[in-house]
Amino acid sequence: MPDPIMGVEFAHPRLTSLGLEVLALSDLRRRASPEHFLRPQRPAFHVLLLFRAGTGWHTLDFQTLPCVPGTLVHCRPGQVQQFDIRVGLEATVILFRPDFPLLEPATSELLLVDRILSNGGATFSGPALAALSDDFETLARSHARADASRASTSILQHLLQALLLRLAVLLEGNEPNPHAGTPQHRLFRRFRQLAEARFTDDWRVADYARALALSEKTLTRICTSISGKPPARFVEARLLLEAKRLLVHSDLSSAAVAMQLGFDEPTNFTKFFRRLAGVTPLDFRRSQRTLPGGGQSAFHGQ
Fold this sequence. Notes:
Oligomer: single chain
Number of strands: 10
Strand content: 15-25%
Strand order of the largest sheet: 2-9-4-7-10
Number of helices: 12
Order of helices and strands: EEHHEEEEEEEHEHHHHHHHHH
Largest sheet: 5 strands, antiparallel
Helix content: 40-55%
Structural class: alpha+beta
Shape: globular
């Protein structure tokens, strides 16, 4: 069944083969009307915004992030975003495909590109903001000079890797992730990838354990240690998030949402949702839905 939330694929307006684009928020604003940006959209790529001037807000999966100078927002692929692009609000915007960064084994677990900011945003100041701003500006200048050559692409990949590494270090501070780089963390990431691909079709922990060549007990121990919840609760949380997205950002009935998420009966979906969210699906929709869905994204560069 097609996704009722507007999906957005990456498309560079000038260099079609390049998996990265850097532009100013004011340039993005000229691609569509302000109302256009209020519509929910689900990009298939990473969006990093470092705000430089003005005030506004950005919403990621029901969390509204106030944006002021020094705020960094990270929208991961598959998240649903909406944002208010007001006159005077300015930021440097980096868009990149998940396969664009150079994630070598030695650094991939530190960077964790798909979860740089666990809550979607952070605000920096002082030397940290100055260093991060320099990295954004360096990448922007190199992007402006980029061509279709392999050397140009490689330069941009290394600059983005350096920016992500700095961001990871700034966010880790003096309390690095004790799991980063361990075999257990790599297995957990593989489980997360499988769950993301299968969560509407496969809810059985035994199937995920089998796919990872692990026992259910071992997968449960790894998942609980790293994420704080066992694999069954992890898959349930992913189902609940998708249910909330569809209820708020689409006009699908509760029964249609249940079908899209793999429930055999709408009543089972209602029981599931109420158990985890504390309210019925329709009560959640009435309390949360404030903005219309649909529309074509301005990230296409057209």
